[in-house]
Amino acid sequence: MPLDKTQLYDEIVQQAKALTEGEPDLVANLANLGALIWMRLPEINWAGFYLYKDDQLVLGPFQGKPACVRIPMGRGVCGTAAKLGKAQLVEDVHQFEGHIACDSASNSEVVIPFYHRDTLLGVLDIDSPATGRFDEDDLQGLQKVVDALEEALL
């Protein structure tokens, strides 16, 4: 019997904690978490991270097709999430003002900023070819994954 979203995210968070426990290296943790999300979430076509460097977002570890390398702060869903410091849940990216189409197959997106001691480190970015793929349950579950990452970096 398939898991419901709450159960699925509970498992993903437990796996995220196991993968990051005792590992302070950011890139190693991002690589494993991107792979974990890619492996466990259905109907996604990109899962990974952009890192905040020199007042822009720069491509970090990910799973999926090649992606945009640099995103200006405030541009697209990722740049908006980073600039506002607020997660973005976008049902239809084609309706998002300033959307950056790294992959024309992506139709919905969720982006969550992550921090170390109140300093922006980057964003978690997940795309789906399905319009309306992500909802509040996904946002809450993925926020818990980001929380596990932030805890590991303390």
From TrEMBL:
Protein name: GAF domain protein
PANTHER family: FREE METHIONINE-R-SULFOXIDE REDUCTASE (PTHR21021:SF15), GAF/PUTATIVE CYTOSKELETAL PROTEIN (PTHR21021)
Family: Belongs to the free Met sulfoxide reductase family.
Pfam families, A to Z: GAF (PF01590)
Source organism of this protein record: Lacimicrobium alkaliphilum
UniProt xrefs under InterPro entries: FRMsr_CS (IPR000614), GAF (IPR003018), GAF-like_dom_sf (IPR029016), Phosphatase_reg/MetRdx (IPR051330)
Lineage: Bacteria, Pseudomonadati, Pseudomonadota, Gammaproteobacteria, Alteromonadales
Xref: PROSITE patterns: UPF0067 (PS01320)
Domain named GAF: residues: 35-153
